[in-house]
Amino acid sequence: MSNKKRVIESIKYINAVLLCVVWVFILTTIIIFSSFSFSNSTLSELIENMEVNDLFVHFIGSENHYFYVDNNKHEISLSEIAFNLATNIKVGDVRSLLGREIPGFSIYDTEIAVAGEGTNYTNLPMESSPPLEVLLKEREIAHEMLAKEKENTDSKAEDPSQTAEGEKNVYIYHSHSWEAFSPLLKDVKNPDEANSSNEKVNVLAVGSKLTEELSKRGIGVEHDKTNVTKGLQERKWNYNHSYKYSRERVQEAIAGNNELNFLIDIHRDSQPKKITTTTIGGKPYARLFFIVGKEHSNYEQNLQLAKEINAKLEEKYPGISRGVFVKGKSQGNGVYNQDLTERALLLEFGGVDNELPELFNSIEAFAEVFGESYWKGAEGI
């Protein structure tokens, strides 16, 4: 054999060995990675229900359709998975190619698990992330708006037919406690400037109203009114640490009360009023929606909870919800403290332009639906 042929044969042999090593590495990586990150996905179910030989035949069939094991099943392409793991680009989804190149485009990676009326990728939830110095700047309050709303809401509460007998089962808190509503502030036009530490004009007002409405229905509530802006400032943290800060509060509350079954983190959106408001039965409502983080083991339970409550809301108040959205780390925090329980909700009530009557109508609607499900027991929610 000539030297030239020997070299060619050696190269072929080396390439074959390298190819085998690469495929073994890819298969091992996928199996290990799937067991941690995709425990409930199609891939893990596929692996769990297959013999080793069938597994290799299946993956070969995903690349060469002649070897399909079952033509009625959707085959997972091993090369597509490997390419996605290596580049974070999904074949057939141009958004994954452009998402990191165009500023703000990554928001469209958000998954619409349940689309509310009119919801699509052009009006997804929008989160403002102003720097800490903007959050610390206090705005003048529109006192006349608060006085007007107080006249409309002062009423004596009736005794609930059912009570939690002193137990507090719901924990309401606010990772972005500074999020305020522009109609309650004077001369605020930019959504990023609608921030305040005053609990009468920010999302704490929403939390207080929800606490009141749930209490009317006999549900024990603990409402955390912590000023997160101040907490971040004291630690020299920025906006991106807000969920880390609120997590400490939630963990402390859980440690001190093992009866806490529900966690509700209340926010407001930054979309304009035309997107965040609707009219139902002649009354104005601030539309609400649910955010579910998918980067944790409780993801599916929390998603199911959000879907069920959303469906019951839509049944009674058609159009009140903008839907249920799923986010990973590339679109936000990805966890939102929802790994701490199987009954965690991140609720966004209305948007930056909504007024208190619209918000309070929605809170009453949510409290009604939540209360009915709550008293039906664990199987009802």
Automatic annotation (TrEMBL):
Keywords: Membrane, Transmembrane, Transmembrane helix. InterPro entries: Spore_II_P. The chain crosses the membrane at residues 12-36. Residues 146-159 have a biased composition (Basic and acidic residues). The keyword S-adenosyl-L-methionine does not apply. The keyword 4Fe-4S does not apply. Residues 146-166 are annotated as: Disordered. NCBIfam families: spore_II_P. This is Stage II sporulation protein P. The lineage of its organism: Bacteria, Bacillati, Bacillota, Bacilli, Bacillales.
